[in-house]
Amino acid sequence: MKLPRNFFKPLAIGAPKPLTELPVKLERTIHFVPPHLEKLRAKVPELIAQVDVVLGNLEDAIPADAKEAARAGFIAMAKGNDFGATGLWTRINALNSPWMLDDVVEIVGAVGHKLDVVMLPKVEGPWDIHYLDQLLAQLEARHSVKKPILIHAILETAEGVDNVAAIATASPRMHGISLGPADLAASRAMKTTRVGGGHPEYKVLADAAPDGGARTAFQQDLWHYTFAKMVDACAAAGDQAVLRPIRRLLRPASLRGAVSQRLPHGLRRRLDPAPQPGADRQTRILA
What we know:
By secondary structure, this protein is an alpha/beta fold. Helix content is 34%, strand content 15%. The strands form two sheets. A seven-stranded parallel sheet has the order 1-2-3-4-5-6-9. The chain has a two-stranded antiparallel ribbon with strand order 7-8. It starts with 29 loop residues before the first strand and ends with a helix.
């Protein structure tokens, strides 16, 4: 166990001193950009003023044969834009992937001075955070990065959720934690039907009564329990952000369905589309 007096010491000679308090920044909307697509990278200058965080996604949404192009695209995107008060993040590949090490080494070496947060997927315990913490410190020292790059963990396995308190306190770099529900559901051998929550049938836990009949134990939504556990761990640790997973940037238009294209254009403009399923929940998230 690391002694408390060493917790806020740099992990490499020449690395910036870890933050004792996280900076307070608005992070209401995070836009995931697939940086291997030049057409989408070209929209980033306009996007910067519309969101709180621009995130270059290198992980699951990127095909295996496009991983290197995505990494190079993110570096080009970071170099080619002034992000101002808008955060610049990247979601790297998982620690056990063949791309993760090059993701971190090349990105910190090229644009570490601009990078605010590294989002690490499939975190299972504090040991994952310790590894990335040490690696970032070494690279910050090598490339004279003046401010520490923070870490945002994604919990996508039962083991990760079970270790959430230890993960939240693993490093002064910890920015926050997000939930990856699809992979988590697979890890739990559960059904999942949508990003952001579990199967609608998971509402009642029942077991067999001694007489052989069924007995309702209590009402429980396992996903809400998981998220509450994350909130408690981050609040206790002082981590800034706990994020529900959101597939895309939430915009008011995303809460409503499309109007049929078969209608005349003038009529389509005057029609109000019907709300999509889950609109109430998304409205609460936006608020």
